[in-house]
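Raw record, unedited: Protein translocase subunit SecE
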Amino acid sequence: MKVVQYIKDSFVEFREHVTWPSFSDLQRDTIIVAIATVLLAIFLYAVDTLFTQVLNFIYGAF
């Protein structure tokens, strides 16, 4: 059965060939992603607010 062999091969791949990050690397990368997410959210908020103000100026408040 090909499916069973695929699953067995996948476990072997995870066990023998995958390099997992250390806990400190994982913490550092998590902090980087969290900071990047917050910065992106602030940027998108600013762009959304700017576009809202520009459109309200052009079309008037409804």
